[in-house]
Amino acid sequence: MVDIDAAIGFVVAHGDTVERARLSWLRTGTPPTPEVLDSAEVGQTLGGGWPASWGDEVASVDATCFRLTELDDLGALGRPAARRALDWLAAAQQRDGCWEEDAALADTAPEWARPGNPEARLYLTANAAFWLTVAGLDARAAGPLDHRVGGAYAGVVQAAGQALAAQLRPDGSWPSFLAAGWLSAAVLHRQQMFYESARIKAVLAERLPQAAPADAAWLASTLRRVGVDEQEWTLVAARRRLTETQRTDGGWTSEDGHQFDVHATLAAIRAFR
User: Are residues 209 and 241 in contact, defined by beta-carbon separation less than 8 angstroms?
Assistant: First the structure.
């Protein structure tokens, strides 16, 4: 079994102020201080997105989604900064229902976010659609609210869901990075496209025994965020993989570098708290 107490101890010992505040919100619902929120929201562009570390001052879809992950862990998706970010994401959707990074980032963006790369395009579409799905109603963004999936962003999310489903191959795989799979599965699950979502999850379950620990944590937290039951077979497989890969210090290793180990550990806590 995943040792949640050990994971909590790892975050307390190694997390920064924002990361420890994320832990407090996830575990006990303790509201973050204004100083923590200011730190988590710093650097937002006037348009509403956040730039990536590799992108100068140009707002990035990928970086904005990452920042929304942090704000979600602080219970801050209803704050003005998150509202502006979600509105920016919705406005950045292209006519075919997809997202792509600004062309100005073509020379600096990593492979998973590079403009003109079809694999990056699918991943960014799944990521943006996921956050608009889960945050639509909570964010109280400008525009008429309704009770459809995505709330104020229902039309945006529906178009994205159709675009994601259209990319599925007959065997349930997809022409993009692994993360695009679980993000797409979450979006399609909430769109009640359960057959398409299940096809993706079947592929993910086959890959989980060899998955990187941070990927297993991200997958699990993503599916749990949209209400997939923790006893569902994909999540059972993710829990097994996390049990196998949890370190003796309570944390999990991120392939992006040790500086992201706390983030990966928080994802596991979010999934199985």
Answer: yes
